[in-house]
Amino acid sequence: MAGTAILGRVTWRTATVVGLHEETTTARTIILAVRDWPGHVAGQHVDVRLTAPDGYSAVRSYSIASAPSSDGRIEITVERLPNGEVSPYLTQEVMVGDELELRGPIGGWFVWRSDQTEPIQLLAGGSGIVPLMAMLRSRSSAASAAPFRLLYSVREPRAVFYHDELRALSNQGDSVVITYAYTRVTPKEWPRPAGRIDAELIAVGTWPSSLRPTSYVCGPTSFVEHATDLLIAAGHDREKVRTERFGATGERK
Amino acid sequence: MNASMNYLDGNAAGGELSRIFAVDITSAEGQCVNCGARRRFAEAHLYSDCPGLVARCALCGHVLLRLVTIEQRVFLDLRGMTYLTLDTTQPQQSSTQVSI
């Protein structure tokens, strides 16, 4: 992937790690200060390139977690994958002050712009919450009144990213309605047994298709396929369902 | 994991395509040569677990695009799309059609 600019359009930039915090035992948020960052729209991603001393380089895509801002900073949240090439470095070794090579922002389709006023349905599978969190944060920072709902499918309670912030969002007056679905372990006395999302959960946890919401579905490919099929079966127009797949492994190459 | 689940969206090709195109191709609409479906490139199924990137029509599976980088040379094969239409809203409200 190491390459030279064609017509000078490659925009690899230097990003400096300015903050780190753990989201879960396996995921970490990295705050980056990016030189000449042009700004972004919620939902976009960046490519991160790591190069070893022998010249071998690996590029991975990570969704931006932070709302658009003008301070030249972005946040990404990286989940450590058992046999990952890049994610173990980003979640365990990288330190404040380190520099990374970064290209972006990328993508103009899986985005939410703050001038959108229609109801928004977010569906996250695991770390698929990241670009959807950027949309929730963008909604808050733009003081948008667009009605948002989030259905967040996650392995177990301790795997939830942005836990306190999501709770605060759902407690606000112009609240975002959040529904959790646990696939392996539920909290105590949780009404629904652990399992994949199903038609019943779509019926109670998402906007009805009659409101013509725009839906954003993000997660592993199998989750995105399943959730999209359920939405279409519930009467949603395929044109109104936007998807971002992380692949089978969750590590996008 | 099922091998058929080993694909991403056209979105994921945005970084590599930005090396070649000055505008965001992932939000362009393209027509599949094989089945005639008109969809955003971002909605194609992208296979990256191969030497390069292969995008297939989400509806019929026909190859839309292949992009391979070998050292300093990029090979781009767009045989699977009859056209791409780009919304150039950023600077002004107009639409451009690119014939391939």
Could you outline the blueprint of secondary structure elements for this entry?
The complex is a heterodimer of chains A (253) and B (100).
Chain A: E1 12-22, E2 27-34, E3 45-51, E4 57-63, E5 73-79, H1 87-93, E6 99-106, E7 120-125, H2 129-141, E8 148-154, H3 163-171, E9 177-182, H4 199-205, E10 214-219, H5 221-233, E11 241-245
Chain B: E1 8-9, H1 14-17, E2 29-32, E3 38-40, E4 45-50, E5 52-56, E6 63-70, E7 73-77, E8 81-87, E9 95-99
Antiparallel strand pairs in B: 1-4, 2-3, 2-8, 4-5, 5-6, 6-7, 8-9
Based on the coordinates given, report the CATH architecture of the largest domain in chain A.
3-Layer(aba) Sandwich
If you average the pLDDT of chain B, what whole number results? 84
Strands of chain A, total number:
11
Per the principal axes of the C-alpha atoms, what is the gross shape of chain A?
globular
User: Proportion of β residues of chain B?
Assistant: over 45%
Structural summary, described in words:
- The complex is a heterodimer of chains A (253) and B (100).
- By secondary structure, chain A is α/β, with parallel strands linked by helices.
- Chain A folds into 2 domains: 12-106, Translation factors (Elongation Factor Tu (Ef-tu), domain 3); 120-245, Rossmann fold.
- In chain A, 19% of the residues lie in helices and 31% in strands.
- Chain A has 5 helices and 11 strands, in the order E-E-E-E-E-H-E-E-H-E-H-E-H-E-H-E.
- Chain A has helices spanning 87-93, 129-141, 163-171, 199-205, 221-233, and strands at 12-22, 27-34, 45-51, 57-63, 73-79, 99-106, 120-125, 148-154, 177-182, 214-219, 241-245.
- Chain A has a 6-stranded antiparallel β-sheet with strand order 4-3-6-1-2-5.
- In chain A, strand 7 (120-125), helix 2 (129-141) and strand 8 (148-154) form a beta-alpha-beta unit.
- The radius of gyration of chain A is 18 Å and the shape is globular.
- Chain B is mostly beta strands and 100 residues long.
- Chain B has one domain (3-99).
- Chain B is 4% helix and 45% strand.
- In chain B, the strands form 2 sheets. A 5-stranded antiparallel β-sheet of chain B has the order 1-4-5-6-7, with no helix packed on it.
- Mean pLDDT of chain B is 84; it is low at 91-100.
- Classes of the chains: A alpha/beta (253), B mainly beta (100).
- Chains A and B meet through strand 6, helix 5 and strand 11 of A and strand 1 of B.
